[in-house]
Give the backbone structure.
Amino acid sequence: MDLVRILCAIFVPPLGVFLQVGFGMDFWINIVLTLFGYLPGIIHAIWVIAKK
């Protein structure tokens, strides 16, 4: 399942975070980071998925 989350995080970073934590604070942080730049959103999403 982590592979699916990581693939989602690469293509749509907020979706990968949502699948991991739901509508928590990490999700909203990822939305903001993705709006500022696609790469920061990807990095944050993979970090959230990997820290579990």
Remarks:
- The chain has a mean pLDDT of 93.
